Amino acid sequence: MRLIAWDTSSRAGALAALEWDEGSREGWQGVKLVSEWTLNVDLTHSERLLWGIHQLLESARWKIQDVDVFGVGVGPGSFTGVRIGVTTARTLAHTLGKPLVRFSSLAALARPAALWLAEQPIVGKKKVVLVAATDACKGELFALYGNARSIMDCIAWAEGDAGGYWKRGVEERVIAPDDLLKVLKRKLSEGGDSGYWLALGEGRQRYPEFWKKLPQDRELRVPLPFANQVQGRMAGLLAWEAYQAGLASDALRVHPRYLRASDAEIKLKAGLLPPGPTRGN
Question: Does pTM top 0.85 for this prediction?
Answer without folding.
Answer: yes
